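Interim report, section 4.2 (structural modelling).
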Amino acid sequence: MSTAVQKPVIPRLLQAALVIAGIYAGFWLIFDLILAQPIPQSLMVMYMFFVVSGVFMVFTFTEESARQLIAPIRALVEDQTKKTLRNVVFIVVPALAAVAVFFQLQPSDEAPLELRSIHPAPPSSVKIFGKRYDLMSLENPYRHLEKDDPEQFQELVAVGGEVYIRNCQYCHGDKLDGKGPYAQGLNPVPLNFQDIGTIAQLQESFLFWRIATGGPGLPKEATPWISSMPIWQEFLSEEEIWQVILYLYDYTGHRPRSWEHE
Amino acid sequence: MTRKNKNFGSQSIPLRPRDGICGLYASSSRLSYSLSVVVLAILLLGVSTGVFVGAGDTVAEASGSAADGLAAAVIAPPELTAADYPTIAGVNGRVTVWLVAQLHLWFAAFVLAVPIFVFIIEAIGMRTRDKRYDEMAYEFIKISITAYSLTAILGGLLLFSLIVFYPHLFQYLSGVFGESMFYYALLFFAESAALYLYYYGWQWLQGGFRKWVHLTLGLLLNAAGTTLMFLANGWVTFMMSPAGVDPAGVFAGDTWAAMHNYLWNPINLHRFIANIAYGGSIVGAYAAFRFLSATRPEERAHYDWMGYNANFIAILALLPLPFAGYYLAAEIYAYSQQMGITLMGGIFAWLFIIQAVLIGTLFLSANYYLWCGMGRSDGAQRYNKFIKYLAIVIIASFLVWFTPHTLVLTNEELKVLGGPYHKYLGPLGIMPAKNTAVNIMILFTALSFLFYRRSNRIATVAWVKAGNTAQLALYTAGIANLLFLGVYHGYFTNTVYKVAASIPQVMTTLIVIVVSLGLDSAMYRGAREVAPLNWGRVPNRAQYALFLLAVAFTWLMGLMGYIRSGIRQHWHVTDVFRDNSLDAYTPTLGYAANVVSAGTILFMAMVIFIFWLSQVSSRKTPTEGFGNQAEGR
Amino acid sequence: MKNFLQVIAFSLLMIGFFAAFSNFGIPEIQPAPPPVQEKLDLGAMTPERFITLGEKLFNGKGTCALCHNAVGGRAPPLDRVATLASERLADSRYQGGANDVQGYLVESLVDPSAYVVAGFGKAGSGDTESPMPNAAAGSIGLSEVEVNAVVAYLQDLAGTEVTVEIPKGTEGEATGPEPVTGTARTALASAEEIIDRFGCVACHKLAGKGGEIGPDLTQIGASKDASYLRQAILDPAAEIVEGYPPIMPVTYEVELYAGELELLVQYLAALK
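Predicted structure of the assembly:
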């Protein structure tokens, strides 16, 4: 029966390997290259594990296909003419595994993994400058000037810019892109305000809370212990914080999120 | 945290019924083996309850029955300290109770489920007059007989460990459930009697009226077994959602109210369905084991056929199981929002990722078994080219289902992603996406089955083309509806509707499956067979898929047992009886997984031993030169 | 025999895979230990600490924040509840027996169904039955003092006056793995000691002696009552006496224990 069947152009084992490699490359192409949002390694391992299982299932559910898949491996082990190749494979494969294990077990200076939430749910109210602020209704006291008195608004933005350059740009960058001179030394990285996913998604009161209480003011799920954001209420005045917030939105062109328009 | 209580009786159990059973069937050696074990277990239980009652000061020796004595005293949970929990050096009480309870549950699930589908298969055999069904039913029940005595032994062991490690809890529970424990013991006798009559009378009660008597015995057996489970479920759910007691836990005296608590029926339904799926998978593993060790072709054919049927039962019961699970979870939420959030959030959130891996494994191995089974007929080659598309959809759905909402990221990845949330994978982490994925997975499993059904036949009815088009349209519409419901309700409406979409989704899936199967059986009525179905012509790999089904099922049950019990947190009985032992904390998932793994290994070892026993029982060694006759020759 | 071993090896492999995934494939989160019952020194309780205790109970043992949060939508937000209370007391749907804000708040914790915010009732009950458990019973089991602490927190959260009685001197039970924040000292026993300890006479005149930076307190009881004095100590900026600079420290709210504050206020009010 098998003699009548034409041998496939590509051996089954190679086919399987190509399919798996193709799917992996597809993931990489789509998520890393096109979408610029790579799949985290921990998830990728599991994805590929089940992809490999699936490919194995498809390639072995008929007896003939399974035989063809295993034929090269069987030949390698049993065929006396491939003795040299066998010896090479039997040395190289375990050696590769050993090398992989060796590097995997190397201690590294990478911090242990933490489940970190960057924009944690804010508390409904918070104590800043000895006063209690209700974050749900708190608004930037200068925001109304944008319409009422554009000139004064621009002045305040300029003041905010100065506050920013004196205090913030070292980490968050002079282009507000999170790439200041010190940014490389920090982990987690300083926030990139230009990104549509950061301040554009937040209310001004959230920024006020984050700036005033800094890293230590984060709730537990946001790992306050690894954030290096200072507690700015100890260095800046309330007015300065509001002004710098004006500047952040003005420079990046984002609009603060507001519940009224939704 | 798993604590289940099973008491097989109090000291007042009369000895007569046991003598009766012994006397009746003493002739069979197999029987006396299993019976002696059961008798031993019951005797031990009698002694143990005697010890327990003696220790409890609420029962006056002089008063007539234990129940009367207990009802007179106030039954209230005591305030305990860590010192109130007996310790035995080197033995962790919680792990002991946990493991024994879980092992008992596995065996109990198996021995309760097998009679259910044995009864159905026997009925099918009676209707179709196909001898094969009757033989298969007989073989199924044969396997469960040995498991039955193991269930009883483990039940006794569980009782012992509860009394030894949690005497106060047991005292409280037996105070509340005194009478029902007594009924439990009586029912256990009834079940044993029915089971032994059913099994040993199988060949005797054949044909005509006798067969009807036999089938009725099967019904009685199932009624007794299911009632037993419901009773025990009442005790377990009382610990989760106590009823019939006041907020301080003082028992009002109505055992039925305590039994009929909030989560009783959801658990009853869920366990009933899951038991059938589980029983099917264990019998499938048995068939696989026998297939692998079979030497003769007809043996292979028989066990292949048996394995196929067992797998079919398992999958059939597996399909509605997620929906019973939803119902249970919804009722837990309705009972206590706090318990519901504990269930779905916090550390247990990750448990559902493990659960996804397990259920994915179940679906994958069940599908793989079907695909391999298509090799039984040469006619199936027509469909081989479609399998890869089924595989792609099932794997893709599985990957969606498996994607967690919170990703584990290295700091490097955090930098690249610019935050902990993945823009494109994040939305796959929430319930609507997962519901959609699992429904599609179920639909495609049904599709696999449809291909399998068609593998050796060609429809001859006039409307084949129309029928196929209708099938295609049905599946397309079903999938479109699933996707629409999932995407629209999941991402474009507010939170309230996210979960609401799951019900129409479930209905869609069920309707598509039922209608398409109905349509298909109409289409293939009187179909022409293109190639014979060669039972036994199936690769060994498929048998391993069956084995994987059983292993994954066992492990999954253990895992879900951990969470069912774990959501009570530091309570013996939720909100009324606090657990103040040193082990009152919730163990981590990894720790729980290790306990579950150890339990699964123990269970599988016992199960394989039972399989092996059933093989040994049919072997005969010629005794040449040993017996007297040989000498005489 | 070969099959037997193969099947066993296969089963072990699969079980090993499941166990390995559970141990290494997902993050290991250590569940919080069960709450420990611990004695708390309520004698050393300031209004500020009492509110902090309430906040901790709200987020921790009380499990309130599980549902009453900004994202869940399972229960009404409580940040303004103290200001809304009077409105709710007047509502025709109100079933309870409270007649002031504090009473309403306490009642809402122990008898949640007395008033159900529209849209948050149990499904099918038409907002007459609350899904919330009694916070003083069952698995939450807040003590009376703890309920008051939560109410104090809620009142402070809304920016209204904290009217609940701060416990002084008596011991009660409160919960938390660590004691309430701040370093504890022994409560002072007399007003003289308190005045001495906090150096009041550096600015104020008492019995004719002392500084002149703040108003003379020698006969302060003649013109001001206890509640004014209490406010003047806790929140000095609320009302500044004409001609004096607004420089009195605001820290007494944190530093003074509730018992001490009462002693001091009564002592001053008696100076006539």
